[in-house]
Specification:
Largest sheet: 5 strands, parallel
Order of helices and strands: EHEHEHEEHEHEHEEEHHHEE
Keywords: Amino-acid transport, Signal, Transport
Distance between the termini: 28 Å
Strand order of the largest sheet: 2-1-3-4-5
GO biological process, one term: amino acid transport
InterPro entries: ABC_transptr_sub-bd_PQQ (IPR022478), BCAA_transport (IPR051010), Leu-bd (IPR028081), Peripla_BP_I (IPR028082)
Shape: globular
CATH class of the largest domain: Alpha Beta
Structural class: alpha/beta
Strand content: 5-15%
CATH topology of the largest domain: Rossmann fold
Radius of gyration: 21 Å
Pfam families: Peripla_BP_6
Protein name: ABC transporter substrate-binding protein
CATH architecture of the largest domain: 3-Layer(aba) Sandwich
CATH superfamily of the largest domain: Response regulator
């Protein structure tokens, strides 16, 4: 597994949300264990190695070395630009890079690569999943609050697209500026208690407050502090995610328990994405009864491939951009609320393709 150490990233707002040191890695290890459970009967053995680096170029060099040593499948927890460097460095090899963390749309569209598969949902998938539920609830008028970072603005763009797509309306959009260093100062909560209601005054009538705060640096301040009592959704309050520790559906309880026994903690979304990536390789290996990298890659690209992944239906990869089709959970910090796609959102091929960029919309040409 290739992990880019992001030293410049601020810690999340809550101490409860600080990522564990094995975030993603533990999920990949569970996938290896599951693959070997089946592989034992087919005389197949799977191993996991890990490389970490804060320097993108050094990380890419380390991964290329590992591939040359005989590790053809790369589970990558890295920034979008690092992922592209990695994919380009491996383009002439029989290798697949699994993106388990980056939600950036351009990785699936203008900058797509044929040797990259995305088990992490894209921003548009997450935004569409949330918007479908808000439409189902008839919460049609949104007040959108956007943070100052490029990631915040990118998720806000995905939310705007989803609102237009499903007939919802953004009645007001506001930029929230914040001082990260003051949040843990004595008396800081008193400033926030005054700042948020003041920030929200004078807004048009709205059904819901939608937060775009990917870095989790201010969004959690908004529930219970708005000027008018309204639900808070987006990246805080009610939010979309690939996985949640409270999921019990479709065999989820035993899956969560197995992970807790292994990692001594709860499963996080990147753990799930990494598990799904590793299990994709294992599923292809068991179906083809082969360990040849090219054979497995071709099978994963074919319409014969599907994966059982504790989401109520078989998951497949989109043939036009390598994105994993999957239901998206809509959750609060402590409980699973619903799953999208929502009832009534239909599609001629797969209802899962109502989430994210569909084939007629794609700008990806690498898979053609």
């Amino acid at each position: 597994m290739a992990r880019e150490i992001q030293e410049d990233r601020l810690p999340p707002l809550s101490l409860l949300d600080i990522p564990p040191p094995d975030d993603g890695l533990a999920g990949a290890q569970l996938g290896i264990d599951d693959n070997n459970t089946t592989g034992r009967f087919l005389k197949q053995e799977f191993t996991l190695d890990s490389v970490e680096n804060a320097n993108a170029d050094a990380l890419v060099a380390d991964v290329v070395k590992k591939v040359d040593e005989g590790f053809p499948f790369v589970v990558a927890d890295a920034r979008a630009e690092t992922l592209l460097k990695l994919a380009d460095a491996l383009k002439d090899k029989d290798t697949v890079v699994f993106n388990v963390a980056a939600p950036d749309e351009d990785l699936r569209e203008e900058n797509c690569r044929v040797n990259v598969k995305h088990t992490a949902p894209s921003r548009t998938m997450l935004a569409d999943a949330l918007a479908q539920y808000l439409a189902w609830k008839q919460w049609r008028n949104w007040l959108l609050v956007v943070g100052p970072t490029p990631e915040d603005k990118a998720f806000a763009d995905a939310l705007k697209r989803a609102a237009t797509r499903f007939g919802l309306k953004i009645v007001d959009e506001r930029m929230f500026e914040y001082e990260p260093g003051s949040r843990r100062a004595d008396g800081g909560f008193e400033q926030i208690q005054q700042q948020i209601p003041s920030f929200m005054q004078g807004a048009p009538d709205h059904d819901v407050v939608v937060i775009a705060d990917e870095g989790e640096l201010f969004g959690e301040y908004f529930p219970y502090r708005t000027w008018i009592s309204r639900p808070v959704v987006g990246t805080a309050g009610l939010y979309p995610t690939a996985w949640h520790p409270a999921v019990e559906l479709w065999g989820g309880t035993q899956f969560q328990n197995r992970f807790q026994r292994l990692a001594k903690r709860q499963m996080r979304p990147i753990d799930y994405n990494a598990w799904t990536a590793v299990r994709s390789v294992g599923e292809a290996a068991s179906r083809t009864n082969s360990s040849d990298a090219k054979t497995l890659i071709d099978y994963m690209r074919s319409d014969k491939f599907d994966l059982a992944a504790f989401k109520g239906q078989k998951l497949t990869y989109r043939s036009w951009n390598g994105q994993l089709r999957q239901p998206i959970f809509i959750v609060t910090p402590k409980i699973h609320v619903t799953v999208s796609p929502q009832p009534g959102f239909l599609h001629e091929f797969s209802e899962l393709d109502t989430l994210g960029v569909d084939r007629p919309e794609t700008k990806c040409t690498a898979f053609q």
